[in-house]
Write a structure and sequence with these properties.
It contains 5 helices and 14 strands. By secondary structure, it is of the alpha+beta class. The chain has a single domain, classed as Thaumatin (Sandwich), CATH 2.60.110. Belongs to the thaumatin family. InterPro entries: Osmotin/thaumatin-like_sf (IPR037176), Thaumatin (IPR001938), Thaumatin_CS (IPR017949).
């Protein structure tokens, strides 16, 4: 009988650490219609009304997001198209989605071992969303306004409402070029989103009022149409 090597013990310890610190995400569809939930990392899944999708995300994951796709049609091989949030025509997303789409964004175990999370409308809006911890250690956030119904004419898109950066692609709206500084101000068009969803990102430099934290190791619930 041989004894385990130090490398073997280290690998087992690392796997245990990663598993123990993985965050669980529950993605729930409360919309009165089918959505095709998408996650990066995570892939994608069809969710009929009332259905839930559960998956784990490893500690240390950064730049992750969850969103809903609407009016999709996929064949048996998982290829097709969605009206909003499409990710390269794949049921199992391998990258980010196409605007307009409401985003739940997060980084796990970041600075000071905190999770950072937000709801972003920088890629526009397609369905209302709640993004909350499942415990009571920190507060959740919600964007439940009728943004599609109230969307200005120049921002309207099939199935959603575009952010002005997507439509106009200017430095002013996208905070690029001469506006690529911390003092890039909100615009009248970004304020349309901020007035209706004060906790959500309305334009790229909207950090102070739109980024939230929880202790590392927190689990989360994302609800479409809360």
């Amino acid at each position: 009988m041989s004894f385990p090597t130090l490398l073997h013990l280290f690998l087992l310890s690392s796997l245990h650490f990663a598993f123990a610190n993985a965050a669980t995400f529950d993605v729930v569809n409360n919309c009165p219609f089918t959505v095709w939930a998408a996650a990066s990392p995570g892939g994608g899944r069809q969710l009929d009304r009332g259905q839930t999708w559960n998956f784990n995300v490893n500690a240390g994951t950064a730049g992750a997001r969850i969103w809903a796709r609407t009016n999709c049609n996929f064949d048996g091989s998982g290829r097709g198209r969605c009206e909003t949030g499409d990710c390269g025509g794949l049921l199992e997303c391998q990258g980010y989605g196409q605007p307009p789409n409401t985003l739940a964004e997060y980084t796990l175990n970041g600075f000071n071992n905190l999770d950072f999370f937000d709801i972003s409308l920088v890629d526009g809006f397609n369905v209302p969303m709640d993004f909350s911890p499942t415990g009571g250690a920190c507060r959740g956030i919600r964007c439940a306004a009728d943004i599609n119904g109230q969307c200005p004419g120049d921002l309207r898109a099939p199935g959603g409402c575009n952010n002005p950066c997507t439509v106009y692609k200017t430095d002013e709206f996208c905070c690029t070029g001469s506006f690529n500084r911390d003092d890039c101000p909100p615009t009248d068009k970004s304020k349309f989103f901020k007035d209706r969803c004060p906790d959500a990102y309305s334009y790229p430099k909207d950090d102070p009022s739109s980024t939230f934290t929880c202790p590392g190791g927190t689990n989360y619930r994302v609800v479409f149409c809360p």
